[in-house]
Automatic annotation (TrEMBL):
Region of interest (Disordered), ranges: 1-20
Name of this chain's protein: C-type cytochrome
Transmembrane segments: none
Record bears the keyword Lyase: no
Domain Cytochrome c residue range list: 40-137
Molecular functions (GO terms): electron transfer activity; heme binding; metal ion binding
Length: 139
């Protein structure tokens, strides 16, 4: 079925995932993904992604479900940067873009293309999803 903004308008549902094993995070939104290297976060992120994001962004974050963008591209170019401090800066920028997109959704000309997840997904779940996507095989 083709994607339509009408489907997008349904209220976002919190995925059912057990985050108890994850390290506690400082309150608020970190500047960069604090769970990037945590394998458990990648596993939890995969479950949450499948419940909340896959129907629009593709089943294994593989970009198979256009027109929602392939999320593996976000921050991909950072890996090519040789200079470590530039790479870190690049990853922080991508993390920021990712978090803002997820929290506040995407609206164009008053049509909601992606719902806002602020208050629905905790920072632990959002960062876990980001960790899963970053470790998905690259396009
Ligand atoms: C109802 C469909 C839908 C759902 C569900 C959805 N998205 Fe999206 N998302 C979109 C569309 C469509 C866009 C592109 C919107 C645009 O560019 O204006 C988008 C854009 C994004 C972007 C920005 C990507 C870019 O390259 O510009 C991110 C990040 C994102 N989504 C993450 C997520 C995550 C994480 C989830 C699950 C928690 C999710 N989305 C759930 C439809 C959806």
């Amino acid at each position: 079925m083709a994607w339509s903004p009408v489907r997008a308008a349904t209220a976002p549902q919190a995925p059912e995932v057990d985050t108890r094993g994850l390290p506690a995070l400082a309150p608020g939104w970190a500047e960069r993904n604090p769970l990037r290297e945590v394998p458990l976060a990648q596993a939890i992120g995969r479950q949450a992604y499948h419940q909340a994001c896959a129907r629009c962004h593709g089943v294994e974050a593989d970009g198979s479900r256009a027109p929602a963008p392939d999320l593996r591209r976000i921050g991909k170019a950072c890996q090519r940067l040789q200079d470590l401090s530039w790479r870190e800066r690049c990853l922080s920028d991508s993390d920021h873009f990712f978090v803002q997109s997820v929290r506040f959704g995407k609206k164009k000309f008053d049509i909601e293309h992606m719902p806002a997840w602020d208050g629905v997904l905790s920072p632990q779940v959002v960062w876990s999803i980001r960790s899963f996507i970053e470790n998905a095989p690259k396009p």
